[in-house]
Amino acid sequence: MTVTWEELGWERLAAGVGRCRLPGWDCTAGLVVGEGTALLVDAGSSLAEGVRLRTAAEDLAGGRVTHLALTHPHFDHVFGAAVFAGAEVYGAVGLDAVFAFERAELRLDAVRNGLPVADADEAVDALVTPRHLVSGEWTLDLGGGRQALLANVGPGHTAHDLAVLVPGSPEVVFCGDLVEESGEPQAGPDAVPARWPDALDRLLALGGEDAVYVPGHGAAVDAAFVRRQRDELAARFGVI
């Protein structure tokens, strides 16, 4: 029996495109369904959450998750990645170095933010380096006329920010934490504030005025919201 997005607690954004808001940190995960393929955007905050995401995504897609795009290297977006065995994993250039050399910092950040120590240890031990590193733009052919464009639009929220544009009516842009709706954008020690407004300009150029923009946390927004947040960030960080 075919299940609907709503039955699984997902929000349908366009034909074959949707997202869910995960509990705990209100982190977004996105799904793009192709022909015999499925692209998941971000993987959740733990291996257990990754399993729940995989199960829901496979129910909606009618098959396994074949592609995984990681928008940036924060625990609530990447710690579930290891459960997607066999998927082609994509991230911005430099994500591999973070996973290789900054695991202790990733674990500490997760625990500091409330992830149980055992869950953090398990996820860090299982973390695998993305096979595909995006330096500019990378178009995925998902079959059935479905494409997705991966764009390295950072740095901004981190030094390694990846956005995902899904053409269609409407176009959908998964922004990662470059855009946040449920609270003020968070600028941690790995943020690049001077470049963040430029990254939002690149997002707006990708999606245009009529796209649906999906923040890393919070409700989907429009171009006007992204533009306001861009101006607020520029003022906050003194960027001309």
- Strand fraction equals 25-35%
User: Low-confidence parts, pLDDT < 50 over ≥5 residues?
Assistant: none
Q: Can you write the helix and strand succession as a string?
A: EEEEHEHEHHHEEEEEHEH
Bulk shape: globular
Tell me the number of strands. 12
Radius of gyration: 16 Å
Helix content: 25-40%
- Rounded average pLDDT: 96
- Count of discrete alpha- or pi-helical segments spanning 4 or more residues: 7
Widest beta sheet: strand line-up: 1-2-3-4-5-6-7
**Largest β sheet strand count, sense and barrel closure:** 7 strands, mixed
Intertermini distance: 54 Å
How does the helix and strand content classify structurally?
A: alpha/beta
Report on the structure:
With 240 residues, the protein is an alpha/beta fold. 30% of the residues lie in helices and 27% in strands. It has seven helices and twelve strands. The chain has helices spanning 47-61, 75-78, 95-101, 103-112, 117-126, 196-207, 223-237, and strands at 11-14, 17-21, 28-33, 38-41, 67-69, 88-92, 132-134, 137-143, 146-152, 162-166, 172-180, 212-217. A seven-stranded mixed β-sheet has the order 1-2-3-4-5-6-7, with helices on one face. Strand 1 (11-14) and strand 2 (17-21) form a beta hairpin. Residues 26-217 form the Metallo-beta-lactamase domain. This is MBL fold metallo-hydrolase.
Question: TL;DR?
Answer:
The protein has 240 residues and is of the alpha/beta class. It has helices spanning 47-61, 75-78, 95-101, 103-112, 117-126, 196-207, 223-237, and strands at residues 11-14, 17-21, 28-33, 38-41, 67-69, 88-92, 132-134, 137-143, 146-152, 162-166, 172-180, 212-217. The protein has 7 helices and 12 strands.
